[in-house]
Write a structure and sequence with these properties.
Length: about 80
């Protein structure tokens, strides 16, 4: 098992789900352990008044749903949301 870290740039901007769970993002951060043998699917959902811009960190994408392998050294992803005008 390796460490993984998921962050929100704006705690009000939205939520993420990790496979079938919606982790509690205390202060915009969630950390946990995960097996490297299984890929994960991460989904971003913007709150009203916000839009999802993309993922940055170990994987970069503008897709709201991404599936990725867990790296041996762990993984860090940041969901980036911004207010709509």
């Amino acid at each position: 098992m390796v460490a993984r870290s998921f962050e929100l740039n704006d705690i009000n901007g939205g939520k993420i789900s990790l496979n079938t769970i919606v982790p509690t993002m205390e202060n915009g951060v969630w950390k946990g352990q995960y097996y490297t043998d299984y890929p994960i699917t991460v989904t971003a959902k913007a709150s009203p008044g916000y839009q999802f811009v993309g993922w940055d960190g170990d994987v970069t994408s503008t897709e709201t749903v991404i599936t990725t392998e867990i790296l041996e050294g762990g993984i860090q992803l940041n969901a980036v949301f911004e207010k709509t005008k």
